Each structure stands twice: as structure tokens, then as C-alpha cells.
């Protein structure tokens, strides 16, 4: 009898352990965490519970969030877009703060970041900054640029002028020498030569008959290799459409789709890595079949507008946050399964696989 | 040269130095009138020269390269206090506004065009800027009145672009439908050419100042209540005035007494502060001659309760008609008209030079301030608007001969009310008024010769917007419209009875029905109730 119980225990115990972590996580050996940009804090959520795993205090509202390839280090923009915080995501601790304000011989150089990224190895940060010199009785604008920062010394290593409208920097997947620079159009920064080139016109397409694209990528995606964003398009005949634009971060290929209905305005979108379905959010939630370009499921956020949508690391669930103080887990039919109250209002959420 | 290191400590120290330099606390001694050796005034030198040096041209940097209204200078000084560490007393602030408005102000001709902005008129539909780049780059965020109430050198207009990009760096994201810096450059070129700091009208006006002491007659109009008449007396003490005013609406409501304290800026801009029972009322008037003051007033706690007023200096020599009821006279009819004014016992029929086909058949003096008349208008008289030239009599305002009332218009045509009253934010009501119109000579609606006949009593109601939309009706939440057309919005904050929207914001269609000259007329207009004016310095 005792022997049978032991045998049963030996059989069941591994199953219990396996069931405690997602199947994907077990295979790839990672811990899934959701990083949510709050006010005065980075909110770290363990979505398996769900529960708040940590609250990391910073100055002001949190904006950009980017991570190293192993997920163990994150770069967070906060302090009215003036400071970059380097965070150890295993211990949920700030390990470095880079303030981008500087002195000039006539006053202060107020630099604000609109797009930042940490290098895949965590040694450098890249930031697009607008620069305003505050002199004794006047303001002077200096050219906006992308700066390369050594995170150890906090020194600015190199820089290159970049156009107004830039707001997202994102590394090409598996290529530490190429940054995608999202602005009015998509640019590519060759980090070896520190040279910026236009990759694809979006606001300024080669042929305006293809539609003039307008997007504001405050909610970039790409954790699963697909960066995606809602896109409005305006055609020469006056037609305005709403849809989604997404890019394969490895190949750099951009695709778009347009809904078969009137624009309602969406803030963020996420596309699964197989490019089967997309999910979008603001005042409504859409599930879009990419092949047919049809909205196949529609729902309404339970407590009001939500800015950010993302997919769980195993792509089995849809996560929502941004705007109010809530984190929502829904199934892929847009049915709410769990809700978690957060300590502050929020902007966006990133799903990170932290290697074990 | 820009140092490339991130010297956060040095930056913080730098801020402290700049702030401390700007925060010099000048003495409060009375300011003396500027002399040629003084930059604007002693108060300006004391309060501003910590940061603003004298440039190579001998002018105080920035300050002596711009001209603004008292409201514009007030906003600039507030910004210096808010973000640059200027510390001044209330008296010093007032002295700065007075001195800057006197030395670096606007001419009457320049201010007249932006009176709506200076008076903060509610639901005012500003005309589109003539320049497309100005329209594109500026008025997405604020009214054109904000910069049209300024005059700057070309360099100062350029500085304004840098000011925007440094102060509001997100400007290029919320203007991503255009290349904002490029559009702004084109706008600046236009503004420098058309709103330059040098002007003949300013050179001619600067240094003049009206004295409004004495007795005045008042004619006003308040939407929902109609025209009113009154009397006023200004008494001068030092550089300020006090005013006692009493007004009475023609519809027979009670007399209202107002006591006010006021000051003239730039020699002609009369800014008044009244108390009337529990209400505080602000007045924004311009003295346009020794005998005339025109302007607007509004409740401090509800900008939507407002009116327009004209003051006429009391004189005892000649007959002077300051208001007539009605002003639109129908053809083929004998129109009963009441004239209001001064010395009307002296008025004779020959004093009124009426157009062809318009005949004064009866003139009866009710008092020295009121006449009743019968005006016969021939069927064949020309439909038009005209002024009455009258010998030794002065007749103010325009009159209209018309065929028939054809349609109504609601003012404001797009009503914007704001929730408020529950917390620190004030609500903003709307005084809806229905005006009758005639098609004019061409018999067509909405053409240049259409004739505005005046306000008419109407029956007011709200319809859902959009009409016929299932499941959406904002009316139970957003506010109420009274029988006289006064729309009062609901309070701000969460309304738990409301699904999804959760606040008392929304839209409705306003409907006015009126019977004019025996004809039933109906008109609709759009209404919104929106959030309180949280950013009321960006209007």
C-alpha cells in the first residue's frame, strides 16, 4: 500500500510542478513577467497568478520600455522623458540612471527622449532626443538626434541627426548592428557606420495612391518578433481607412491590412507570430483574421478605454492594460478571465521572457 | 559649444542659478512714468532685468521687441512666475501689467480685431486665419486671437517657434499630419509681415489716455434676457475708477444695481470688476472716443453668462437716439417703434432723414428719454440695412427694411458648454438666442444680402444627437435648457448612472421654434457639453 502511494507520488509530483508553469516556459526555461508603465513606478506583474510581483519606483510617468535579449535587463524612460533607468529584471532593482540634461556655455540643454532601446547585450542605450537650450532669457532649438550611450560610464559615444517625428527605436531581431527607427516614416540606423537611411515611406509613400499612413507608435510591440500598430490611411480620393501595420523584426518586411468598416480609432495592436490573428484596443476590442482582413470578434473593455494590448508569452492569452489602474487577462475570444487592480494608472504593457 | 557629458548635478545647479537670478525681489515703491533713459519703467527694470539684459540695440531683450494687450502681458508674467522663478507682490504684478501695456501695448485698431479673445467670449466662432500655414500650425492648439493680439519683430516671431519646440516638444507628435517646423517657418514669415512690432497706428496712439469720469447712458444685450438700458457714473481716484451702474431690461424685469472697480490700460482698455449680489462680473471694454465705450462682460464664475454693452456720454445739447425697438421695419406695414435716448423732447421729424418709402407718421414723446413712433414702410421700399442721418440729432445703430421673416438662426451656432460647479472648476453655460432673418433682395437663403432682423422669443428644446440613433441619448445627463434658451450644464466628475462614458459629457441638437410676423419658423443647431476648461490659459 505504502509502495503504491510512493509510486503514485513519484508519477504525480512532476506533473504538479509542470502544471505550475506554462508549457512554453517549461520548454524554453523562462519566467514570464509583464512590465507595465505606471505613474512614478514600473509595475511588474506575474501573470500566472496574477499578482503584482514588484513595484519599482522612478520619477514621473514611465514611457518607453525595452529589454535585452535574455530579458534580464530593461531600459525604462521616465522623469518627464529626461531619465533612462536601467533595471535588473530578475531582482526588480534599478541598477543605473542616466539623466540626459546637460550644460551649455549659455545655459541648460533640456533633452527629452522620444524613443529609446537597450542593446541586446545590455551594454549600450540608444535614445532619440529633442534638444532645447534654455538660455537666460530665450529658448534655442538644437537639431534632434539619436545618441549612443555607454551604460557603464554614462558617456555619450556617438550621435547622428534624426528627423522630427521619430518616436520608437527598436533593434532588428538577431542583429545588434541595426536599429529600426520609427518616425513619420521607417528609417534604419546602421550602428557600425552610425548612418541613418530611409527604409520605407509611410507618411511619405513612394506612390500616394497606396495611401498616406498615419500612426503614433506609443505602444510598440515586437516581443514575439512582430512589431504592430494601428494604422490610419488616407487616399487621394478622400477615403480614410483604419487597419493594422506590422513588421517582421527579423526580415524587416512590413505588411498592412485594412478593416472592412468605418474607423473608430485604436491605440495599439498585437499580431501573433504565425500572423494568423491580430488584436487591437481602445474603446473597443477587435480580433482580426489577417488572411480575410475581417474583424471576427468584437468586444468592449469592462471598465472603460484601454490603450495597450499584448499576447502572453505562450500566445494563449490576451493581456490588456494602459489608461486605468487595471491589468486584464482575456482568452482569444476576447472574454475576460481575470482582472488585477494596479497601484496607479498606466500607459502600456510589455511581456518579457526572462531566461532562467 | 555643447558639452557632451550628462552633468546632472551641474544642470541642477544651473537651474538654481537661473531661478535665483530671475527671482530678485524688487522693492514695492511706486513706479514712475517711463522716461527715455528707462527701459519701459522702473518696475520692469527691477523685476525683469535679472534675466533680460539690454541688447546691442539698446533695448531690453525680448520685452522691448514685442507688444501685447494687458491680458497678454498678464499671461507672460504669470509664466515667468510659474516656470522661471519670478517672485513679485500683487502690487508689483499690477504695476508691471500697467507699465508694459502703456509702453508696449496695442493700438485701438489692433485690439478691436481680437476683442472676442480679450473678452474670452464663450462659444465664439473665430474666423479662419487667412494664411494656410498659420491655420495648420497654430490653431490646432489655441485660438488665433492668442497671437493676433501680439506684435513682434521678425526675430521675436522666430523665437516663438523655438519657445514652442522647447516648451512643448511633443508638438511634432500631435502635429504628425504635417511637418510642423516647416509649416511654422511659413507661418512666421506671414506673421512677421502682418503682425510686426512697428506700426503707424501704435505710434499715433501711444501716450494718449481717455478720462471716462462722469455720467453715461448704457445700452446692453444679454442673450435669453434681451436688451436693457441703464445709467452709469464713473468717479476717478488716482489711476483707478469706481462705477455705479443701474440697468433695467426692456422686458420689464427688475432694476439691477452694480458697483465696480476699474482701470484703464493703454489709455483706452477699460477693465472692470463688478459685484452684483453674489456674482462677480468682469468687464472688457474699449473707450473708442470721448463719448463712447463699447465692450463685453461675463460672470467670473460662469463665462457663459455674458453680455455686450455700449456706453454713451450724457450730454444735454442735442437729441440722441441710443436704442430703438424694433430696428427691423416691415414693408407694407405701419411699424410701432420706441426710441430711447437723451434730449428726445427736442427731436423733430425733420431730424430723421429716412430712406425712400419709409415715412414717420407719428412721433410722441413719452419722456425726454423715450419716444414712441409709427413708421410706415411702403410695399415698394427697398429691402436693405441703413443708418439714419439726422440733422442735429445723433442716431446710433443700423435699421432694416424687410419684406418678411424667412428663417431663423441660433446663436451660438455651435454651442460649447462645460461641466462644472461640483469642485474647483466653474461651469460654462450657454445663452441660446434665436434671430430672425429675411432672404433679402435675391429671395435666397444664406446669401450676402440676407437681412438679420433681430432676436425673437422662441420655444426651446433638445433632441438626441445624432437624431434617430438607437441606444444613445445624452440628454438626461449633460444638462438642461430653460424656457428662455439658457442652457445649464451638469456637474463634472463621475456619474455612476451612466454606462461607459461615466461623465456628463455629450451632444444634443438644439431646437428653436418661433412665430415671427405670423409665420411659424423652426431651426436646429448643434450643442456639446464637454470637460471643464482645465487648461484655460490655452484658449
UniProtKB/TrEMBL annotation, chain A:
Q: Which keywords label this protein?
A: Signal
Is Signal among this UniProt entry's keywords? yes
UniProt signal peptide: 1-25
> Superkingdom of the source?
Bacteria
Which InterPro entries does this UniProt record tie to the protein?
Answer: Host-pathogen_enzymatic-act, Quino_amine_DH_bsu, WD40/YVTN_repeat-like_dom_sf
- Record's protein name: Quinohemoprotein amine dehydrogenase 40 kDa subunit
Organism expressing this protein natively? Bacillus badius
TrEMBL record, chain B:
Keyword annotations from UniProtKB, A to Z: Signal
Q: Which residues form the signal peptide?
A: 1-23
InterPro entries, A to Z? Cyt_c-like_dom_sf (IPR036909), H-AmDH_asu_dom2_sf (IPR036718), Ig-like_fold (IPR013783), Ig_E-set (IPR014756), QH-AmDH_asu (IPR023887), QH-AmDH_asu_dom2 (IPR009111), QH-AmDH_asu_dom_III (IPR015183), QH-AmDH_asu_dom_IV (IPR015184)
Q: Where is the Quinohemoprotein amine dehydrogenase alpha subunit domain?
A: 211-297, 320-403, 408-536
Q: Name one Pfam family in it.
A: Qn_am_d_aII
| Keyword Signal included in the entry's annotation | yes
Asked if the record carries the keyword Oxidoreductase, the reply is: no
The Quinohemoprotein amine dehydrogenase alpha subunit haem binding domain, residue ranges: 42-202
Please give the superkingdom of this protein's source: Bacteria
Q: What is the protein name given in its UniProt record?
A: Quinohemoprotein amine dehydrogenase 60 kDa subunit
